[in-house]
Amino acid sequence: MQYKHLRFGQGFRTVFAVRDVQAAEMVIAPGEAEGGPDNRHRGADQWLYVVSGTGVATIEGEQQKLRAGSLLVIEHGERHEIRNTGRGFLKTLNFYYPPAYDQDEEPLAAGKG
């Protein structure tokens, strides 16, 4: 068993990985974004759940509004950006299958999870 109480401090932090799945928390300040036109996970699908806040996800040029309770799957290889469009922090819980980041939160090469 692994346990972690999530505090959702600002930024991106991996929480832990078990076998083929990795969890991470992400907090984006108002007007800020994570990712961009070249951001993609070559070997991992990303499941993004919005805990609180509002924003917009741009995946392969298509926009999807986000709000508390939204669940979004970004498939491996899809270029994406998550932008906070609200007045408060945008807090998300993310799961990667297989893991997308190493212990230093650097992206893993495809198939290295």
Spell out the key features of this protein.
single chain, 113 residues, mainly beta, Jelly Rolls, four-stranded antiparallel β-sheet
Question: What can you tell me about this protein's structure?
Answer:
- Strand 1 (11-18) and strand 2 form a beta hairpin.
- The protein has a single domain (12-97), classed as Jelly Rolls (Sandwich).
- The strands form two sheets. Strands 1-2-9-4-7 form a five-stranded antiparallel sheet, with no helix packed on it. Strands 3-8-5-6 form a four-stranded antiparallel sheet, with no helix packed on it.
- The protein has strands at 11-18, 21-28, 33-35, 45-52, 54-59, 62-67, 71-74, 80-84, 90-97.
- By secondary structure, it is mainly beta.
- It is built from no helices and nine strands.
- It starts with 10 loop residues before the first strand and ends in a 16-residue tail after the last strand.
List the helices and strands and how they pair.
Blueprint (H helix, E strand, L loop, with lengths): L10 E8 L2 E8 L4 E3 L9 E8 L1 E6 L2 E6 L3 E4 L5 E5 L5 E8 L16
Antiparallel strand pairs: 1-2, 2-9, 3-8, 4-7, 4-9, 5-6, 5-8
Shape: globular
Task: Supply the CATH class.
Answer: Mainly Beta
Please tell me the CATH architecture by its name: Sandwich
Portion of residues in helices?
A: under 10%
Beta strand %: over 45%
What radius of gyration results from the CA coordinates? 13 Å
Largest sheet, strands/sense/barrel: 5 strands, antiparallel
Residue windows where pLDDT falls under 50 for at least 5 positions: none
Task: Note the gap between the termini.
Answer: 20 Å
Count of spatially separate domains: 1
Structural class: mainly beta
Secondary-structure element pattern, one letter each = EEEEEEEEE
This entry's quaternary arrangement is single chain
How many beta strands in the DSSP annotation? Answer: 9
In CATH, the homologous superfamily goes by the name: Jelly Rolls
Mean pLDDT: 92
Task: Fill in the CATH topology.
Answer: Jelly Rolls
